[in-house]
Write a structure and sequence with these properties.
By secondary structure, the chain is α/β, with parallel strands linked by helices. The protein has a single domain, classed as Rossmann fold (3-Layer(aba) Sandwich). 40% of the residues lie in helices and 19% in strands. It has six helices and seven strands; from the N terminus they run H-E-H-E-E-H-E-E-H-E-H-E-H. It has a seven-stranded parallel β-sheet with strand order 3-2-1-4-5-6-7, with helices on both faces. Helix 1 packs parallel to helix 4. It is globular. The N and C termini lie far apart (57 Å). The model has no long low-confidence stretch (mean pLDDT 83). InterPro entries: Glycerophosphate_synth, TagF_N, Teichoic_Acid_Biosynth. It comes from Streptococcus sp. Sv29.
Length: 189
């Protein structure tokens, strides 16, 4: 059993341990954001954050492995007790790399996967090259997601549907991190 397989089995145990957290109430307007497994503030979640910050109606919280590197934002440390609290009490949870499948998600929570790439996904069969436990982990993560942001119809078909069997609502709206390019071009012309 490799490290990724063991993560799946540890996740099954975590699902049992964290299930009592479902009793905590969701805080309306709380948005939890995570990029690249909590390594940085970047990519599509960053641009969604920037737009939501302008509206000033939401409590915006970042999940980071090293929150002290970002003193100007509200942040919680990834995989901490505080992170667990925020993930079960946030109305919206946004990530560009999917979610820990063992999370105690509530029915009224909305999970949005913005993904981190774009265009047609050329490696849709790469699930054949990883363990069965890893495939289960990817597919169970997709079951948590309410929305998946796709850059195009080919990506929707090859990645979201064919590769992980995503069943939620797919929004073929491009990538938030590229929206400013179109917006600036429209403003200039």
């Amino acid at each position: 059993m490799n490290n990724r397989d063991s993560k799946y089995y540890i996740g099954l145990v975590m699902k049992i341990i964290t299930s009592p957290l479902k009793i905590l109430k969701i805080k309306k307007g709380r948005v939890l954001l995570k990029s690249y497994n909590a390594e940085t503030i970047s990519c599509n979640p960053k641009y969604i954050y920037n737009e939501l910050k302008k509206i000033n109606r939401y409590e915006l919280v970042w999940v980071l492995k090293e929150p002290e590197k970002y003193p100007d934002v509200k942040a919680v440390k990834y995989m901490s007790l505080k992170w667990l609290y925020y993930i079960v009490t946030s109305q919206y949870v946004i990530s560009n790399t999917g979610f820990n499948f063992w999370l105690p998600k509530k029915k009224k929570q909305i999970y949005i996967n913005t993904w981190h790439g774009g265009g047609a996904y050329k490696d849709s069969d790469n699930l054949n090259n990883i363990s069965k436990a890893q495939v289960k982990q990817i597919k169970k993560s997709a079951e948590l997601e309410d929305y998946f942001i796709s850059s195009c119809a080919v990506f929707t078909k090859e990645y979201a549907k064919k590769r992980v069997g995503f069943k939620g609502k797919i929004l073929e709206i491009g990538t938030p991190r590229n929206d400013f390019l179109i917006r600036n071009q429209a403003d200039d012309g």
